[in-house]
Amino acid sequence: MYTLYVVAAPRDLPEDIPRRAGRILGEVSLILADDLDQARRFLAQSQIDTPLMLAQEPGQPPSIESALNGLEAGDVALLCVGAGLLLAEPCLQIVRSAQGNGYPVAAVPGPNAAIAALVISGLPSDSFVYLGQLPGQSEARCTLLAMVAQQRRTLVALELPERTPEAMLDLERVLGDRPLVVAASAFGTGDLWRGTVVKALEELPVLTGAESCTLSIGGASETADPWDQRRLRAEIQAGLLCGMASKEISRQLARKSGWPRREIYRLAVDQSKSLVDR
Fold first, then answer.
1. What is the pTM of this model?
2. Pairing verdict, β 128-133 and 154-159
3. Contacts of residue 153, Cβ cutoff 8 Å, sequence gap at least 6
4. Which among 56, 58, 215, 266 would be 20 to 30 A from 93, CA to CA?
């Protein structure tokens, strides 16, 4: 029985592909890719002329039937260029269908953009939380960040360059100021932007020419257990009575209370309204 190979390949440096991966891509009868342009460019640079098709045509379901038909005649490769073995949903459906029909599925590891960026970021990499591609809408993005705000492990996320300024605003709003390293494909090997979330709002260069970027974000500071809500409300009340704005209260308390900045801000606004109504 023929095999479905899931192959990771680098976007910009075809010479970094493992020899086993290059051999398999040259020997299979069909290659499926979730990004046809990137796959064509990579295969051309690697001098591989295996037939290629898209894992999911626009507006169509995943190419499951084509994958299964290909597996009846020979081995098939599912090519992931750039992100490593981080499969988009159409590719996951193809993998599940192959497995469901009894075909062996084998992974052929290769370069992984997110892991590579984390390793050279200088942030702790022995344990981390991978968030995948950040949501495009601010509300969904903030909700996701709030879920991991108390994680002490390094956070790793992918973002589109054109959305990076908006993402920085949400990082600062929800997580506060933390160490941040941004790796963009256009930067080249080892060429990173290093700083903090607040500095990124002021200094991060426009990522022109980059197709994607990886954000490595410092984990939450080691503090005591998060305050209970009674203590948090008391501290908010004290700040309001001293004339502090809700934004400044949330900024200061997020660093020591163990609560997400966004939630502190919401409570501060509610309490400030209560003071006005009295």
1. 0.67
2. parallel
3. 124, 127, 128, 129, 219
4. 215
User: Residue 130, SS3?
Assistant: strand
- pLDDT tens digits, residue range 253-265? 876 787 888 889 9
Two structure tokens written together for 277? 């109504």
Q: Which residues pair with 178 in a beta bridge?
A: none
Sheet holding 4-9, edge to edge: 52-54, 30-33, 76-81, 4-9, 105-108
Helix 64-73 / helix 89-100 crossing angle, nearest 10 deg? 50
Backbone angles phi, psi at 145, to 5 degrees: -65, -35
In the beta sheet, which residues pair with residue 36?
Answer: none
261-277 vs 138-147: helix crossing angle, rounded to 10: 110
Give 56's contacts (C-beta < 8 A, 6+ positions apart).
Answer: 34, 62, 63, 90
Q: How many CB atoms lie within 10 A of CB 239?
A: 21
Which of 135, 204, 205 lies closest to 174, judged by CA? 135
Using DSSP bridges, classify how beta strands 179-184 and 193-196 pair: parallel, antiparallel or unpaired.
Answer: antiparallel
Helix (H) or strand (E) run with residue 158 in it = strand 154-159
Amino acid identity at 172:
E
**What is the DSSP code (8-state) at residue 153?**
S
